[in-house]
Write a structure and sequence with these properties.
Number of domains: 2
Distance between the termini: 17 Å
Strand content: 25-35%
Structural class: alpha/beta
Shape: globular
Low-confidence stretches: 1-36, 312-318
Helix content: 25-40%
Number of helices: 9
Largest sheet: 12 strands, mixed
Number of strands: 12
Strand order of the largest sheet: 1-4-2-3-5-6-7-9-12-10-11-8
Order of helices and strands: HEEEHEHEHEHEHEHEHEHEE
Mean pLDDT: 77
Radius of gyration: 19 Å
Amino acid sequence: MSSSKIRRRTFLASGLAAGVSLPGGPVAAATGLLAPRLIRRATVVCGGVDSGRPILGFCHIGPASSMLTPSLRGLLSKYGLAPIVAASMDRLSPGDVARRVATIGHSVPDTLVLLGDCRRPDDLERLVGLVEALQDLRGPDLFVIAALPRSTADAPRIERLVDRCDGVIGLQHAVQGRDLDRALVAAAHSLLDGLYIHGFIGYDHADLFTVMHAAGVFAFGLGRSSHGTLHAADQALLEVERQGIDLSRVCSVHMGFSGDADTTLVEISDLAARVQARISDSAHVMFYATIKQELRGQVEVSLLAAIERRRPLARRGR
C-alpha cells in the first residue's frame, strides 16, 4: 500500500485536548452523580492534509491534561497534518461519544486509537463500553494505549478489551501524572512513526495488524542513550521485563529505532540482533527505523512485546 493511500485512509483517535464544548445531549441531566458507564470527559484532537478530511486524530478518556494538547498537536504537525478540530465532551454515554468521534470529520475513520488512564475499574469499564460502541460502527481498526489495572479481578474486563481491539498497549502501573502524559505520547510515537515518518524502514497497516491482532496486552519499553544502540536496546528490554513480560514467550514484537542523520545500517542491524536473541524464533516481528535530527548523537529504541492471547481473532470484516 502506498504512503499516499495510507494517509487518505487513516484517522487515528486517541484524544487529549481541551477544546470547544459540545452540547451535552440527553445524558447531561441536572444531577451531580454520574450514571454507571457514562464517560466523565472525552477530549479529541485530529488533523488532516491541507485542513481536509481528518486522517489522524487522538481521543483521550479522563480528565483534560495541560500537557497532552500541545504534545499531540506537535505530533500531528510532525506527521505533516494540520490540526482541524478539537472538541471536548462531558458526561456522555459510550455510544454518544463513539458517534461524535466517528463523525467529527464527517466520515467514519478507518483506524481509531484511544488513550487514557484506566487503572480504576469503573474507568476501565467505560473504555470497554466505548470500544464496543465503536465496534458497532463496523469499520474502524481499534487500538488502545492506556494505563490498565493489574488486579486479578480486572482480568475479565481486560480480556474483553483485548478481544474487541486490534491491539492494546498497556503502560506501567506505577506511571502517573505528567509521567503518564509523556508515556502516552511516547507510545503513540512508537505505534505511528513507522507509518508516517520517512526513514530507512517503514511498515503499513497490514503489517501492523499481523503483528498485533493475535497478541494480548503489549508492554511498552523505551530506551534513549548516547552510548550506542545496544545500550538503548537494553534499557527498552529491561522496561518490558519489569512489566512482567517473559521475552522468551512473546508471540509478537514491534521494534523501533530512531537516530540522527549519521545513523548507519550497522546500528540498525545490531538492534535487530540484540532483540531477536532474546525472543522466540516463532515470534511475529515488525521493525522500523526513522531519522530524527533532534536526537543529535543519541539513539532511541522503542519496544512493544506481548504474549499470545487465549483466543486469537480473525480480522473483523469491513
